[in-house]
Amino acid sequence: MPVRQGSEISPAAIPASGRLYLALPLAHTRANLCTGLTEARIEYQIHDGELVSFDVSPGVLERFNGQARRRLSSVEMQDARSLFVAPGREPKLADLMRTHSLQRLISRIEGQWLADLLADGRLTTHFQPIVDCGDPANLFGYECLLRGLQPSGELIFPDRLYQTARKTNSLRQLDLAARLKAIGSAARHQIAGHVFINFDPTAIYDPSFCLQSTVEAIDESGLSREQCVFEVVQSDQTEDERHLRRIFEYYRTAGFRMALDDVGAGYSSLNLLSKLKPDFIKLDMDLIRDADHDPVKAQIGGKLLKMARGLEIPTIAEGVETEAEWLWLRDHGASFAQGYYFGRPAATPSRPLLTAAFVD
Fold first, then answer.
1. Which of 37, 64, 180, 267 is the least buried, fewest Cβ under 10 Å from its Cβ?
2. What is the pLDDT of residues 199-242, one digit of tens each?
3. What pTM did the predictor assign?
4. Are 67 and 36 a contacting pair, CB within 8 Å?
5. Where are the domains of the chain?
6. Domain 115-359: which topology?
């Protein structure tokens, strides 16, 4: 499958050289930062009594970042504006369109490791089996789980990846790279079952444009559209229901199926359930944990499973870690199950673990 490169996947890196201009909101803020620049041995200029600028070279931004974090409040950094200008050129009026808050610049400096990771292609996919809840020896498919790689090979987990991506405005690039990596990895391992691919709807602007490369990658990979299930990763920013419906409609029209994740985690997921009508419901792992002996979770989980059966929507219970949880889910009509009890995420897709309980 062709590897897509460039700005579609790799966010723009902070320039290694040039001049950084800063417009600070107050004279006190400006004086405080200039004191920090002097302490960090960064030579600066003040223009028209207000703008501060200094040359950028290796190591300078890191020293500047430390002083800004020490001396300025988050409000000051949000109100201050920053602009990079190429070496040897003066800022122009048109550059006003390229200014950003100092807070965003600081986040980009601290998140440069993510830009480097994406540019180097240091993402990998781990696969966790999804099994038939009534007969766990029957493999239904795999969820594709994102992992990053340190240059040393150590794993970076998705929470850190996505938190940094949101801070640095590179969520779109990370989410696309994760989808393409999942598709390529599933194809390389010749997975014959269902392939669950996560996506964050806030990373997608226009489905017909942003998702085109994802669909093309699937067609080029040899995976069938029928086996691919796109799983909505919900976040606090998942608020635009109309946008979500457009994404669902785009994928469904293209021949894919959709799953709604974390159902039971709050009112929003139930509200989305009625409006999106997903092909699969994934029950939140916190709801599944101890459902076999927690009467509150048992009541909520049991009602959700009953509701899903009434709507004829298959359910996938996440986070199953014990035999008792599995047996409770089986007895309450869950369609499929996923969790450490059946198999941990792994770089090579594994068959579900077979315990004596499965074959009795």
1. 267
2. 998 888 888 787 899 999 999 999 999 999 999 876 544 567 88
3. 0.85
4. yes
5. 6-110, 115-359
6. TIM Barrel (3.20.20)
